[in-house]
Amino acid sequence: MTSSIHRGLSSSMSIPPRRRRALLYMPGDDLRKITKAASLDVDLAVLDCEDAVAVSRKGDARTTIKMALETLDFGGTERGVRVNSVSSGLIEDDITSILGGSTLPDVLMVPKLDTPEEAVYISELVSKSGLTSPVPLIFQTESALGLVNLREIILALQRSTALRAEAVVFGADDYVSDIRGSRDDIMAVVYARQKVVTLARAYGLQPIDRVYIEYKDTEGLRAESEQGFGFGFTGKQCIHPGQIPIVQKAFSPSPTQMEHARALIAAFSENQAAGKGAFSFRGKMIDRPTLLQAQNLVDMFGET
């Protein structure tokens, strides 16, 4: 796969968004697992320098990740690298190493982004890499402070000439720990999930939902994934390969839904030509907001 981070090429904000239904983490210091991830047909494989790697293995992870990017064929899978947080003190070495490699990732992922000042700092680090087009970025909101500052963080990133923010990921476990809540209580994260979706959508970013840690509970995963799709999330984080097909199916419309969307769009055009605004379609009243929902499905999943 050709990296979407180009040296010496201009970029455009009109680049269509990639599907990021399932985001799978792989420890960056384990070449065997990374090699397996390359064959899994997951939308986004994230080679991790952060939580999945022991502090004593961070250097090994950087070396292994660069080797994997240079030698492995990931097919249609997008290749991401998650660096360490600003507060860790490791992010400068991570970014210098990963963006200094001969084969770059398709997207950079930054965890625990809490303030717009941190966003500016990351932009400054990336600008030192010598790349002449913005680096696609996914960042994580994982604390009360990060959630409160989310709008300002997004705006700071959108002012950056070194980064192109594309998605925001909700890190529920760190967030719940920060607010002294209980992960077992779904209500503890409802507000945060809805705020992440709302702000991401308001500023043109993809919102990606939390990890479902009970990886053997397939029915629970399916239910939470379908709920997330209904909330407005575009995808979900995964920690086990077995979660991928369930998540990617849940975040994709069914053939019936696609047929309904296309038919609704056609009917809307016919009624507009006839001078009608709201109209009845298959027993429901339709107006422009309903049309936009149908158009969103066709724009993202038009070939489904």
Written description of the protein model:
By secondary structure, this protein is an alpha/beta fold. It contains 12 helices and 10 strands. α1 (31-37) links the parallel β1 and β2. The longest helix has 19 residues, at 255-273. The chain starts with 21 loop residues before the first strand and ends with a helix.
Descriptive labels:
single chain; 304 residues; alpha/beta; two-stranded antiparallel sheet; 10 strands; 42% helix; 16% strand
Task: Briefly say what this structure is.
By secondary structure, the chain is of the alpha/beta class. 42% of the residues lie in helices and 16% in strands. Strand 9 (279-281) and strand 10 (284-286) form a beta hairpin.
